[in-house]
Fold Acyl-CoA dehydrogenase.
Amino acid sequence: MTTAISTTDVSARPEERPDPLEAAREAVAAVHGGTRPEEALRDTGLLDLSAPWRPPVSPETLLSVGEELGHGDGALGRVFVAAQAAAVLHWAAPSPEGKLGEGSHVTGADEDSGVLTDDGSGAVLTGRWREVVGATTADWLVLPCRSGPRRVFALVPTTAVRRGHGVAGLLDDLAAPEVVCDGVTVAPERIVDASGPPSRGSRILPFPLHLRHIASGVALGIARRAVGEFVRTARHRSRAGAVQRMIEQPVLQRELTHAVQSFRAARELLDAETRRLTSGSPQAGALTRGGRVRLASAQLHAQRCALAAVRLVFSKAGGSALYSGHPLERAWRESETLSTHPLFGPEAERELARAQFGGYPSGAML
């Protein structure tokens, strides 16, 4: 059975937007006060920060916003990463503003788990996407899928899909339902190939670099939070019953210093490569292959260093002995879950290695 897409105009009130970094701090405070992550991001204007109807935001600012959100609340950071899939609309043609505009909540799935086929009357999307963060409140979904040999994105309203129950993964702390498309007809203008330059000449990083940049910031923020929590609260009880702060142990001090130095250096490298790439023209079509490879390398390196720091403090503080919901246990879950994103996965590493040694990088990962 084929389900036709019905679109709904989404109107929005023009409003003054705060500085993105200040907005990130406000969103963190709201979540700590009991507001849902999606609502906090919408209220502060961060939910659609990467969308084409918003003023352009520099990669440096996006990195800092992701880091601020990850430091404040890792789950909030992950919702922010998913919502920035709205950036794919920079590659949509023609302009989608007639049907979808400011105020829309767009969220994206991670893996290309669907297939687009032509049934003679148009493109039909079939597939199943696990744990789509934000799908319970989103208006539109950006669903990666395969159209023949190409990796494309289908822009689908949530009214056209079937939502299942969230997969109760051991590492998941968010309401992230399964999304199922049972033969959804997708109009040609809602099928986006983001492998080339943006359709409207936007000065934006290539889509995978853009999304990975934000996710790298979130990973660094989670690591900062985990290390700070460990330094403040971790205690060790000796056999004699004496209680000592773990950070006072010389061997642990040395291990932690190495870990902190690593992810701080990774952050500096990421800053340097971002400045180098955007000092000229950051338009996606104008970036050199070497520049894309260097930035992707810095992003992957930053995420790996951040994850290593979180794993270190989590294990030293007791690891699996920590109760569920302990700040370090939450940081570990959020960091591990973020590390499973395909942009940090084996395919991304293979693409990077191939490009590093002379191969041509695909637009799907670089």
User: Anything to note?
Assistant: Confidence is low (pLDDT under 50) at residues 1-14, 168-172. Residues 250-278 form the longest helix (29 residues).
